[in-house]
């Protein structure tokens, strides 16, 4: 993922014929509410698994089937969007990255932002089945339980991207809280200006010169934060896909805001 991973609706309007647009909303939204012209639909629940390889990834075979049936080729440049500020689309992009796809972009501001100023359609997508090949990623940000456990108490910044009340009820020892939605502008539905993002992150000690370890509950919310950090040029970002679900199952230590000590 490069720093140009986040693209505007105007950019997409100008480059739509150069990319494959992927809408990750439910099929009823794609068909009934409308979608970006030329987009194909790959609903969020279809590329996610609780029992796939690498934790919650769908598995290489399932991913290949999804991409081929959606008309996505191995070397297609992809732009993904949803209607939830990009959090589901970001999960799609991280999944694609982990299966070796290159040329990945998040639509800044989601479907609602596109709908405000550009044409939409409810016409069925014209999909030609494609050939898709899963490849090894150039590098993988995935880290496991042991790696995260070993990072506790080090110079690494452990970042909890859940809501404040979730953090208060139980979080990894020493973790800082950053609700992923703090990075989003409620009016534009896209990311806040770069300077504001950098200031917000710096206030939490989340700086580009430090190792960052992200977690939430099930790896959806950290996907958005991961994309934002890569967009801002952060290189050392770990993605704990098992997140708090696995952490609790494995008996990892937790702190609460009130107690401030392991449970």
UniProtKB/TrEMBL annotation:
Residue ranges of domain Rhodanese in the record: 15-123, 152-256
Region forming the signal peptide: none
Pfam families: Rhodanese
Matches recorded under InterPro entries: Rhodanese-like_dom, Rhodanese-like_dom_sf, Thiosulfate_sulfurtransferase, Thiosulphate_STrfase_CS
GO MF annotations, alphabetized: transferase activity
CDD domains, A to Z: TST_Repeat_1
UniProt keyword annotations, A-Z: Repeat, Transferase
The keyword Transferase is assigned to this record: yes
EC id: 2.8.1.-
SUPFAM superfamilies for the chain: Rhodanese/Cell cycle control phosphatase (SSF52821)
Domain of life from the UniProt record: Archaea
Protein name as it appears in the record: Sulfurtransferase
Organism (species): Haloplanus litoreus
């Amino acid at each position: 993922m490069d720093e140009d991973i986040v693209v505007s609706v105007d950019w997409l309007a100008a480059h739509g014929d150069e990319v494959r647009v992927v809408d990750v909303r439910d099929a009823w939204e794609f068909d009934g509410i409308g979608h970006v012209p030329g987009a194909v639909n790959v609903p969020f629940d279809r590329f996610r698994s609780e029992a796939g390889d690498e934790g919650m990834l769908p598995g290489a075979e399932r991913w290949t089937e999804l991409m081929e049936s959606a008309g996505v080729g191995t070397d297609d440049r992809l732009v993904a969007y949803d209607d939830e500020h990009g959090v589901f689309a970001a999960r799609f992009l991280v999944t694609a990255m982990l299966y070796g796809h290159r040329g990945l972009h998040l639509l800044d501001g989601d479907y609602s932002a596109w709908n405000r100023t550009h044409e939409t359609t409810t016409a069925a997508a014209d999909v030609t089945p494609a050939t898709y090949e899963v490849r090894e990623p150039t590098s993988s940000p995935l880290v496991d339980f042991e790696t995260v456990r070993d990072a506790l108490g080090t110079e690494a910044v452990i970042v909890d991207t859940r809501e404040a009340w979730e953090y208060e009820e139980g979080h990894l020892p020493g973790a800082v809280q950053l609700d992923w939605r703090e990075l989003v502008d409620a009016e534009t539905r896209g990311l806040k200006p770069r300077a504001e993002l950098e200031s917000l992150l710096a206030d939490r000690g989340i700086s580009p010169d430090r190792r960052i370890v992200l977690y939430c509950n099930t790896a959806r919310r950290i996907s958005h934060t991961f994309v934002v950090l890569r967009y801002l040029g952060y290189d050392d970002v770990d993605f704990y896909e098992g997140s708090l679900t696995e952490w609790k199952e494995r008996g990892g230590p937790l702190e609460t805001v009130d107690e401030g000590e392991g449970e």
